[in-house]
Amino acid sequence: MDEDFALFLTHFGPPIDRRYVPPSTIDRYRGKLPDQLLAYWEEYGWCGYADGLFWTVNPQEYEPALEAWIGETPFMEQDAYHVIARSAFGTLYLWGEETGDTLSVMAPASTCFTSPPDDDIDRDFQMRLFFGGMSRGANDVEGLFAPALQQLGRLAHDEMYGFVPALALGGALTLSNLRKVKAVEHLVILAQLAPLHVTEI
Question: Which residue in 11, 95, 122, 129 has a CA-CA distance of 20 to 30 Å to 115?
Fold first, then answer.
Protein backbone atom coordinates (compact mmCIF):
# COMPACT_ATOMS: atom_id res chain seq x y z
CA MET A 1 0.00 0.00 0.00
CA ASP A 2 1.34 3.45 -0.87
CA GLU A 3 1.59 6.15 1.79
CA ASP A 4 -1.13 8.30 0.22
CA PHE A 5 -3.76 5.59 0.31
CA ALA A 6 -2.60 4.64 3.79
CA LEU A 7 -3.25 8.26 4.82
CA PHE A 8 -6.68 8.08 3.18
CA LEU A 9 -7.53 4.95 5.19
CA THR A 10 -6.30 6.63 8.38
CA HIS A 11 -8.84 9.42 7.85
CA PHE A 12 -11.69 7.39 6.35
CA GLY A 13 -11.36 4.00 8.03
CA PRO A 14 -11.73 0.53 6.55
CA PRO A 15 -13.95 -0.15 3.51
CA ILE A 16 -17.59 -1.22 3.81
CA ASP A 17 -20.00 -2.89 1.39
CA ARG A 18 -17.15 -4.02 -0.83
CA ARG A 19 -17.97 -5.18 -4.36
CA TYR A 20 -15.57 -7.30 -6.38
CA VAL A 21 -14.22 -5.75 -9.59
CA PRO A 22 -14.04 -8.38 -12.35
CA PRO A 23 -10.93 -8.65 -14.55
CA SER A 24 -13.05 -7.75 -17.60
CA THR A 25 -13.76 -4.35 -16.04
CA ILE A 26 -10.10 -3.83 -15.20
CA ASP A 27 -9.34 -4.55 -18.86
CA ARG A 28 -12.10 -2.17 -20.00
CA TYR A 29 -10.51 0.78 -18.22
CA ARG A 30 -6.84 -0.12 -18.76
CA GLY A 31 -5.29 2.84 -20.56
CA LYS A 32 -8.31 5.04 -19.77
CA LEU A 33 -7.86 5.32 -16.01
CA PRO A 34 -4.54 5.27 -14.16
CA ASP A 35 -3.07 1.89 -13.31
CA GLN A 36 -2.92 3.14 -9.72
CA LEU A 37 -6.72 3.30 -9.52
CA LEU A 38 -7.08 -0.11 -11.14
CA ALA A 39 -4.69 -1.47 -8.50
CA TYR A 40 -6.91 -0.01 -5.77
CA TRP A 41 -9.91 -1.66 -7.41
CA GLU A 42 -8.15 -5.01 -7.47
CA GLU A 43 -7.14 -4.70 -3.82
CA TYR A 44 -10.23 -3.11 -2.28
CA GLY A 45 -13.00 -3.36 -4.88
CA TRP A 46 -15.64 -0.67 -5.19
CA CYS A 47 -16.75 0.25 -1.70
CA GLY A 48 -17.72 2.86 0.85
CA TYR A 49 -15.51 4.57 3.39
CA ALA A 50 -16.21 6.56 6.58
CA ASP A 51 -19.49 4.67 7.11
CA GLY A 52 -20.60 5.55 3.56
CA LEU A 53 -19.60 9.21 3.41
CA PHE A 54 -17.34 8.52 0.41
CA TRP A 55 -17.63 5.77 -2.24
CA THR A 56 -15.47 4.44 -5.03
CA VAL A 57 -17.75 3.42 -7.88
CA ASN A 58 -18.07 1.52 -11.13
CA PRO A 59 -17.79 4.27 -13.79
CA GLN A 60 -20.00 2.30 -16.15
CA GLU A 61 -22.91 2.43 -13.70
CA TYR A 62 -22.57 6.21 -13.46
CA GLU A 63 -22.51 6.91 -17.20
CA PRO A 64 -26.18 8.07 -17.15
CA ALA A 65 -25.35 10.60 -14.41
CA LEU A 66 -22.21 11.72 -16.24
CA GLU A 67 -24.16 12.25 -19.45
CA ALA A 68 -26.96 14.08 -17.62
CA TRP A 69 -24.58 16.54 -15.97
CA ILE A 70 -21.92 17.31 -18.57
CA GLY A 71 -23.10 15.58 -21.75
CA GLU A 72 -24.25 18.84 -23.30
CA THR A 73 -21.32 20.93 -22.07
CA PRO A 74 -17.98 21.82 -23.70
CA PHE A 75 -16.27 19.54 -21.18
CA MET A 76 -17.23 16.48 -23.19
CA GLU A 77 -15.49 17.96 -26.22
CA GLN A 78 -12.29 18.53 -24.24
CA ASP A 79 -11.77 15.06 -22.79
CA ALA A 80 -13.35 11.67 -22.06
CA TYR A 81 -14.48 11.64 -18.43
CA HIS A 82 -15.36 8.85 -16.03
CA VAL A 83 -17.00 9.03 -12.59
CA ILE A 84 -14.56 7.32 -10.21
CA ALA A 85 -16.02 8.27 -6.82
CA ARG A 86 -18.89 10.07 -5.14
CA SER A 87 -20.00 11.38 -1.79
CA ALA A 88 -23.03 10.38 0.25
CA PHE A 89 -24.76 13.59 -0.85
CA GLY A 90 -24.03 13.36 -4.58
CA THR A 91 -20.74 15.08 -5.23
CA LEU A 92 -19.30 13.30 -8.27
CA TYR A 93 -15.55 13.02 -8.74
CA LEU A 94 -14.65 12.81 -12.43
CA TRP A 95 -11.41 11.69 -14.03
CA GLY A 96 -10.41 12.86 -17.49
CA GLU A 97 -8.40 10.41 -19.57
CA GLU A 98 -6.07 13.22 -20.64
CA THR A 99 -6.59 15.83 -17.93
CA GLY A 100 -6.89 13.73 -14.78
CA ASP A 101 -8.44 15.15 -11.61
CA THR A 102 -9.79 18.44 -12.94
CA LEU A 103 -13.57 18.17 -12.64
CA SER A 104 -16.15 17.48 -9.94
CA VAL A 105 -19.89 18.05 -9.78
CA MET A 106 -21.76 18.91 -6.59
CA ALA A 107 -25.14 17.76 -7.79
CA PRO A 108 -27.42 19.10 -5.01
CA ALA A 109 -26.08 22.62 -5.66
CA SER A 110 -25.94 22.18 -9.48
CA THR A 111 -22.32 23.31 -9.36
CA CYS A 112 -19.31 22.06 -11.29
CA PHE A 113 -15.81 22.75 -9.99
CA THR A 114 -13.03 22.78 -12.56
CA SER A 115 -9.29 23.30 -12.35
CA PRO A 116 -6.56 23.42 -15.00
CA PRO A 117 -4.72 20.15 -15.67
CA ASP A 118 -1.21 19.72 -14.33
CA ASP A 119 0.72 18.13 -17.16
CA ASP A 120 3.88 17.93 -15.05
CA ILE A 121 2.41 15.31 -12.69
CA ASP A 122 2.30 11.63 -13.56
CA ARG A 123 -1.34 10.47 -13.62
CA ASP A 124 -0.66 7.54 -11.28
CA PHE A 125 0.89 9.92 -8.78
CA GLN A 126 -2.02 12.33 -9.28
CA MET A 127 -4.40 9.49 -8.40
CA ARG A 128 -2.42 8.86 -5.22
CA LEU A 129 -2.75 12.56 -4.36
CA PHE A 130 -6.50 12.43 -5.07
CA PHE A 131 -6.99 9.89 -2.29
CA GLY A 132 -4.26 11.19 0.01
CA GLY A 133 -5.74 14.69 -0.11
CA MET A 134 -9.38 13.65 0.33
CA SER A 135 -11.11 15.02 3.45
CA ARG A 136 -14.28 14.13 5.26
CA GLY A 137 -15.34 17.77 5.31
CA ALA A 138 -15.25 18.02 1.51
CA ASN A 139 -17.84 15.23 1.31
CA ASP A 140 -20.18 16.32 4.09
CA VAL A 141 -22.92 18.95 3.71
CA GLU A 142 -23.41 21.30 6.64
CA GLY A 143 -22.41 18.53 9.05
CA LEU A 144 -25.51 16.53 8.16
CA PHE A 145 -23.84 13.17 7.51
CA ALA A 146 -23.56 11.94 11.11
CA PRO A 147 -27.19 12.75 12.04
CA ALA A 148 -28.41 11.37 8.68
CA LEU A 149 -26.51 8.15 9.30
CA GLN A 150 -28.09 7.84 12.73
CA GLN A 151 -31.63 8.71 11.64
CA LEU A 152 -31.84 7.15 8.16
CA GLY A 153 -29.32 4.34 8.50
CA ARG A 154 -26.24 3.39 6.51
CA LEU A 155 -26.34 3.74 2.75
CA ALA A 156 -26.06 0.81 0.35
CA HIS A 157 -23.60 1.11 -2.53
CA ASP A 158 -26.35 2.33 -4.88
CA GLU A 159 -27.91 4.85 -2.47
CA MET A 160 -27.29 8.44 -1.43
CA TYR A 161 -28.85 10.96 0.91
CA GLY A 162 -30.99 13.25 -1.23
CA PHE A 163 -32.85 16.43 -0.36
CA VAL A 164 -36.57 16.00 -1.00
CA PRO A 165 -37.75 18.34 -2.34
CA ALA A 166 -34.47 19.14 -4.07
CA LEU A 167 -32.60 22.30 -3.18
CA ALA A 168 -33.15 23.54 -6.74
CA LEU A 169 -36.90 23.38 -6.09
CA GLY A 170 -36.67 25.29 -2.84
CA GLY A 171 -36.05 22.36 -0.53
CA ALA A 172 -34.44 23.12 2.81
CA LEU A 173 -30.86 22.20 3.71
CA THR A 174 -32.01 20.31 6.81
CA LEU A 175 -31.95 16.80 8.21
CA SER A 176 -35.73 16.53 8.06
CA ASN A 177 -35.55 17.11 4.31
CA LEU A 178 -33.14 14.20 3.68
CA ARG A 179 -34.19 10.83 2.31
CA LYS A 180 -32.41 7.70 1.19
CA VAL A 181 -32.68 7.61 -2.60
CA LYS A 182 -31.23 5.57 -5.46
CA ALA A 183 -28.04 7.42 -6.36
CA VAL A 184 -27.84 7.29 -10.16
CA GLU A 185 -31.56 7.87 -10.69
CA HIS A 186 -31.61 10.80 -8.28
CA LEU A 187 -28.51 12.36 -9.83
CA VAL A 188 -30.08 12.20 -13.29
CA ILE A 189 -33.22 13.90 -11.99
CA LEU A 190 -31.22 16.65 -10.25
CA ALA A 191 -29.44 17.44 -13.52
CA GLN A 192 -32.78 18.35 -15.09
CA LEU A 193 -33.85 20.79 -12.39
CA ALA A 194 -31.36 23.65 -12.71
CA PRO A 195 -28.64 24.85 -15.09
CA LEU A 196 -25.09 23.81 -14.22
CA HIS A 197 -23.04 26.57 -12.63
CA VAL A 198 -19.31 26.26 -13.42
CA THR A 199 -16.76 27.51 -10.87
CA GLU A 200 -13.02 27.54 -11.48
CA ILE A 201 -10.79 26.67 -8.54
Answer: 11
